[in-house]
Amino acid sequence: MAATMKDLARHTGLGLATISSYFNGGNVREKNRIKIEQAIEELHYEVNEVARGLKTNATHTIGVVIPELNNTFCTEIITGMEDILRSRGYATIVCDCRTDAALEQEAIEFLTRKRVDGIINMPVDPAGSGLREFSKAGKPVILLDRRIQGLDCDCVLVDNRRAVNEAASLLFAQGHRNIGIISGPREIYTASERLKGYADAHKEAGIPVQESLICQGDYTIRGGVSGMISLIRRNPHMTAVIATNYEMTVGMMIAVNELGIRIPDELSLIGFDNLEFARACCPALSIVSQPTMEMAKETASLMLARLGVEGEASSGPEVKYLRTRLIGGRSVSGPLPGAEERKAVGGL
Amino acid sequence: MAATMKDLARHTGLGLATISSYFNGGNVREKNRIKIEQAIEELHYEVNEVARGLKTNATHTIGVVIPELNNTFCTEIITGMEDILRSRGYATIVCDCRTDAALEQEAIEFLTRKRVDGIINMPVDPAGSGLREFSKAGKPVILLDRRIQGLDCDCVLVDNRRAVNEAASLLFAQGHRNIGIISGPREIYTASERLKGYADAHKEAGIPVQESLICQGDYTIRGGVSGMISLIRRNPHMTAVIATNYEMTVGMMIAVNELGIRIPDELSLIGFDNLEFARACCPALSIVSQPTMEMAKETASLMLARLGVEGEASSGPEVKYLRTRLIGGRSVSGPLPGAEERKAVGGL
DNA sequence: TATCAAAACCGAAACGTTTCGGTTTTAGAA
DNA sequence: TTCTAAAACCGAAACGTTTCGGTTTTGATA
Question: Which of the residues A50, A180, A218, A286 has an alpha carbon 20 to 30 A from that of B130?
Fold first, then answer.
């Protein structure tokens, strides 16, 4: 049915190798180039990427494994990456592993069978067992947002520790002393980093961390709701709360709404991610905003470099650290009565 | 490097055809089956899907083209589809076309070059020009959420007309008489259907439609904000507003927050999609909820049937119509039916 | 034990590319 | 015009499958 290079060769009277050379940037005489292009037009020829893939052992496809597709943080990054990769001829196969390490492993095996040229992973399994195998085959792996102990490959990370430190420091500066935090699962890299930032801020402010103000959430909306409720129940003196990812931020807002708590009069809040959501909250929520577009760009560039498409790939693994921004809303109360002198906190 | 079927043949002393037959469900004698499986184990053999694809002319890959990845309605559906398709061995390549018909066309061409076995499309271009070509090649196309005039292929739709009719009727029943609507772009199928539902409800209630209460939005957050503001400015007597997609619902909430309007005392609201967002709003928003999971399931099943993987494919094009649900919050003045449903969902 | 259909097996030829050596053509210098 | 290095070109052999005819083996029956 569809025309092949053989047809082009016959039609133009040229050899198969010449046709191939034409498509692969080799040297072809002007008049032959014209002949070939004419033939392509007439026969509606289109190169068969599958056949090419068989020969070159490259599929021009890259796999992306993430914990949840239904998560703006993930989709914002994927949108950006997909855009860049597609413009370079690479297709993106996205696998949602439902935050389940076993499914993640399966997804990686699936992608390996599909012979993707590289994998980008926001890992759920802290061991990263599936990736090692893939990586051993000499194919590039890039970790997104979370590190894996003992797997040295390229990483694109966010300075989560500093991010939460900044958020908590802002609250201290506003006079808060009992700041709750809805933290994430201990075993997840970002969650533990964020909790460290919370501790850092306390240290810097010279205020001891109280265990009862730390609530171990699970990065879900439901977890955010129950986490918020238990924080409030356990800590009558608490005047502010930080939620450490988007889902739990939504959960926190749900809880606050259902309990009828007035923000920021009764409680100050700082959330995470999704500026649009923050602005739609009542009152507008102050949040830590992650640089999703830059993450996408860095990740895609790193991948393209590793694939030898463009840019230089460094010999060793590369780690990119990106910074977050604290975006002010109306959910943090001004200096509380009795607060010490306020510190200058970057133009918020 | 990697073992091939030839290696298996040599290792087992069997013929190539027998090995192939083993993998394709043909008859193989017990003792040979064991021999083959042992060889697979020893040589770590894995079938090369690319080579197989060249021979069978099938890539076991399906393309999905959507207007925005960064859109819960889309991602919820994709999550469900990807799950089902992957479990049947099909990879999903998602292309985000940024709500741009030209980019959509490009995405479809890209997928055609990648030789996907089928395309699922939530179309932006009402002409669907790119799809016709693909469809003519005998490969299945399934339209999601929106119809294309004159392209008769399988569709999975939602009864949008009835959905908005129900929403408006509810408002009428609560005594509202001046109901604003933030509508979508006229050329988009769902938008025009939703507007029809709005008109239907007026007809049924015997109340004439007022042009000034209809605001033509563009399905974006920004459009929702400005649409809401202009509606309020133009209609002092308006007591309720319906936003007709998720983004504009968010926009509507932003506007309401920034203008300091009290809900539902000064204005009643009904939004669209994303139950979680609705519950996080203050007060909880009443919304029209679309059956994204069913849409995903129907679409994937339809595709698998067309691909001959499972289920029966009907000869003619199939159109699935699914129903929405109206989920009550606290954003509509007066008592709202369906309160017990909200409780059930609210059992977080 | 001989017979015979069915079951199991086999090798070779595709599928549509790229690539490897080797041959021809080109065009500038002598 | 002749010579020569470089530039273009060429066909055949892969890449790892599936499939097509045709051959062998099997085991139930006579």
Answer: A50
CATH for B331: 3.40.50.2300
Q: Is B233 (CB) below 7 Å from strand C? A: no
Between CA A15 and C1' D10 the distance (Å) reads: 6
Report CB contact under 8 Å: B86, A95. Answer: yes
For residues B336 and B211, membership in a common domain is answered with yes
Does B265 share its domain with B308? Answer: no
Q: Inter-chain contact B114–A91, Cβ cutoff 8 Å? A: yes
Q: A142 at the B interface (CB within 8 A)? A: no
Shared domain check, B282 and B169? yes
Does A54 map to a domain?
A: no
Is residue A127 a part of any domain in this protein? yes
Task: Tally Cβ neighbours within 10 Å of residue B3.
Answer: 16
**d(Cα A144, Cα A77) in Å, to the nearest integer?**
10
Number of compact structural domains in chain B = 3
User: Closest residue by Cα to the C1' atom of nucleotide C14?
Assistant: B55
A49, A88, A141, A300 from A305: Cα distances, Å: 21, 12, 12, 9
Reported as a single tens digit per residue, the pLDDT across B263-289 is 999 999 999 998 988 987 888 899 999
Residue nearest to nucleotide D10 (CA to C1'): A15
- One-letter amino acid for residue B126 of the chain: P
Does residue A53 belong to any structural domain of this protein? no
A50 closest CB neighbour out of B53, B95, B276 = B53
CA–CA–CA angle A244, A249, A253 (5° rounding): 145
Are residues A336 and A229 both part of a single domain?
A: yes
Residues B265, B152 share a domain: no
Q: 109-138 in A: which are within 8 Å (CB) of B?
A: 110-115
- Across the interface, whether the CB atoms of A280 and B253 are under 8 A apart is answered yes
Q: Which of residues 235-264 of A touch B (CB under 8 A)?
A: 250-251, 253-254, 256-258
Task: Check whether B88 has a pLDDT greater than 70.
Answer: yes
- Decide if B310 is inside a domain: yes
- Contact A96/B at CB under 8 A: yes
Spell out the alpha helix ranges (H) of B45-188. Answer: 49-56, 72-87, 101-113, 129-136, 160-173
Is the CB of B56 inside 8 Å of chain A's CB atoms?
no
Shared domain check, B285 and B149: no
Question: How far is it, in rounded angstroms, from Cα B213 to Cα B235?
Answer: 7
**Are residues B151 and B86 part of one domain?**
yes
Buried b / exposed e along B97-124 (16+ C-beta atoms within 10 A): bbbebebbbbbbebbbebbbbbbbbbbb
Q: Is A129 (CB) below 7 Å from strand C?
A: no
Specify whether B286 is located in the same domain as B296: no
The reply to whether residue B221 touches residue A69, judged by beta carbons under 8 angstroms, is: no
Residue by residue, pLDDT tens for chain A (348 residues) are 689 999 999 999 999 999 999 999 878 899 999 999 999 999 999 999 999 999 999 999 999 999 999 989 999 999 999 999 999 999 999 999 999 999 999 999 999 999 999 999 999 998 888 899 999 989 999 999 999 988 989 999 999 999 999 999 999 999 999 999 999 999 889 999 999 999 999 999 999 999 999 999 999 888 998 999 999 999 999 999 999 999 999 889 888 887 889 999 999 999 999 998 898 788 889 999 999 999 999 999 999 999 999 888 888 999 999 999 999 999 999 776 543 333 333 333
Return the DSSP state at A294: H
Which among B79, B111, B284 is the nearest to A69, CB-wise? Answer: B79
